[in-house]
């Protein structure tokens, strides 16, 4: 019997009777073994399963599934403040909070076995990491330094990695003090011994231009160079349409079709056209670059695109999913040249509903390459010069504007949530130094394209949902009940009530909340906290709908140059719809491979977002270096037990530490997301406007410190003032131990609980110790009146 067959039989027995534990004799009898050799194979299989964390062996040498013994197998996600969470492999299970003392040398990303030690309610569990099943981190990026005895150490850039890495200088490269390096781990930290490794790559000195961004790129394992095999295929791709390959494509080159993108965009995925029909309906054509015509399945280009899964857009560069010859060349819908496309044409009525559609291969030749700036100037500002320049497309632009309004009204009517959050862009010079931070606008041009792409994505998703074939969808699951319940409780502070319950709420009810607070001081706070209560969108093979968009069907069809799921959707369209191949063999093949593609694409998307966010934080911090002493107005964007995060008008965020909040002693009240003064009752709450002064900027730590200038809102006597205060001395000591990195936009459900444990109440002094100290120092002033309770 093969190894995996024995393992499968053992797991089948254990899963059939989950509540039982089995001895060796029980298992031997259950799988009907015959002979000593078979028994030995069973024992070996049990050892392998135990090593992989698939089964547990008790102290009495009995075997069971991990969940039977309150063990959960999953991925460890570390937090820079020492704690972490285990994300179970079983999707239906909730995350497990791991306190700092129970991490037991696990590293971020490791596959671990966690033992649940405490349960708090139905959805909150706390545990300890009992076994590291598989190490996932093989190398780290950090700064090389020489320690006091002349040995080399690397300080990891990733604050989720605790402790230094000792560098073996006898092997590997020989960096100098201050070099940014990639160190390959040869020994992992255990007990009190630090990790060891060898330097495999020197990125450059930490002070050299561009090294900071390169370090972030390498830290996240993002490939920047294409292999020779990939480039060979890319260079062999033609740079113009071959007429012999047009075949049966629908020729749309006589239509007025335009692209609308940012002025600096070079990879143009989508082109659009709109015509008004005699029946009053609109005909919307969304034409997407046909990348799959050039990226053949199984080719080196395809393998590389699948591995990268997404282009990464950083402050000063783009790391493309495909080589520039394709992404900026033959695949890009550049102006006034022939291009192959995959088209989705929709007939849309006056209410914004798609009444009919068609999906097909096409060839187009765009009439104009428009920018968001120009479209906004034409449609919103009625710029006379631009309207004259583009007179030949003005009627179509106005029809597009009308149609986008109908589509938006339809989405609003069905309850789609529109957060409309502020976004900023950091402008840098040729050496990567930040020069300006500007807010991104979201006017007519941006909204127009957004509505048309949403319509196409929904239409394609619904088409293949009803075909009932293996497919990739973009899903956004309903918020988790516990997070939504906390949001409902929070908004009661503003006199708001949501229609529905935490386990059954329509997105329209949440949008109604946003509508009620629009233009009010609490708008930002309500929007922010609501966003944090949502789950993260991801790719899946199950058509589970999109909660935020309030639609039952959604996919990504419109950006195959920069997203692999979109490329895969195009491939499936050609296979199922155009070639008509829905054979059992094809369906079985796709059903097997698509779940892995969806999961990997979601993972790579999160990696790209983290890298983009980190580079933004870096450059925003650099931008503030010469602003120390300057004053700014901002809004309290987050309240934690260690202080207030203040977001300036340009989205740059800094911290007012609790120890720097003068004039009172402030306590954190989680249910109100507020700091309340113990003596004055003065309140600082998320969403409040304040004025701050920049007191310190630490680029390496990505930290900006603020001091409050304006005072919080007056509050009378409250129940919170009766609570026992935390030691001020303790609070000031904590200043040096605060987190090095700022909070994440989407925290796990137990993180707030962890935040709440950041300070603990001081232990009461024993009377004897107290009176001894008084005897030594003398009677304190007003000691009779100020007896501490």
UniProtKB/TrEMBL annotation:
Residues 745-760 have a biased composition (Basic and acidic residues). One of its GO terms (biological process) is mRNA catabolic process. Residues 778-789 have a biased composition (Basic residues). It is found in: Cytoplasm. It is an enzyme of class 3 (hydrolase). PROSITE patterns: RIBONUCLEASE_II, S1. InterPro entries: CSD, CSD2, NA-bd_OB-fold, RNase_B_OB_dom, RNase_II/R, RNase_II/R_CS, RNase_II/RNase_R, RNase_R. GO terms for cellular component: cytosol. It comes from the Bacteria. PANTHER family: DIS3-LIKE EXONUCLEASE 2, RIBONUCLEASE. This is Ribonuclease R.
